[in-house]
Specification:
Layout lengths: L1 H7 L4 H15 L4 H8 L3 H8 L2 H23 L4 H17 L2 H9 L1 H10 L1 H18 L10 H16 L1 H5 L5 H14 L9
Helix pairs in contact: 2-5, 2-7, 5-6, 5-9, 6-9, 6-12, 7-8, 8-9, 9-10, 10-12
Length: about 200
């Protein structure tokens, strides 16, 4: 009887992501069986709604990252290159200080590596960084628009090398080196910067 009621319950993807995000913030993971029980639906219904655990985790991780990026943009006090770096500094510090996120990286390194550095979370991060660069460059036309996508991609890869150093190479992150590298990338690609070659 309970299973029949659960299978008839209508659950949207947005509702599932919201509950999964709450679970992630409490436990540093998303347990699909527990989430199905929480939503009062069958496991099959949950998978039909969200597609896969990876897809659900991608949405959860991106919602958390997007929230931090929005907060960092609101707190920014500088313009141009320094403003871009200020946003990144806040974002990296907040993410690295998140206990649920640290638990997730430690407990599920393969899943974290797959989703964060090669999947939709990475692609969304590049798009968000593109927006940050365009926003920072509006007043001073800092970067040529023709290369902004490549710059956003490269910048995100530099940041990922610090954020996920333990996942990518089992090395301790060197945040100072990552920031110097990110600054060099931004300054070198500015409109009118001298060519390296």
């Amino acid at each position: 009887m309970g299973d029949a009621r659960a299978s008839r319950r209508v659950v949207t993807r947005g509702h599932a992501v919201h509950r999964a995000r709450r679970m992630f913030l409490r436990h540093g993971t998303v347990d699909m069986d527990a989430l199905a029980r929480d939503l009062s639906v069958s496991r099959a219904t949950l998978y039909r709604v969200v597609g896969s655990r990876d897809a659900l985790l991608t949405d959860v991780l991106w919602e958390l990252a997007d929230h931090l990026l929005d907060r960092a943009r609101q707190l920014r006090t500088r313009e141009g290159v320094d403003g871009v770096l200020e946003i990144t500094r806040y974002f990296v510090g907040a993410l690295r200080g998140s206990a649920p996120f640290a638990d997730f990286l430690r407990a599920e390194p393969e899943t974290a590596r797959r989703l964060l550095t090669g999947g939709r979370v990475h692609r969304r991060a590049v798009l968000a960084q593109r927006g940050i660069l365009l926003e920072a460059g509006e007043r001073g036309c800092l970067w040529p628009s023709s290369g902004i996508d490549d710059l956003a991609y490269l910048y995100v890869r530099v940041v990922e090398s610090a954020l996920y150093a333990e996942l990518l190479s089992s090395r301790r992150p060197d945040l100072a080196l990552a920031e110097r590298t990110a600054r060099a990338v931004l300054q070198q690609t500015r409109r009118g910067a001298p060519d390296l070659i």
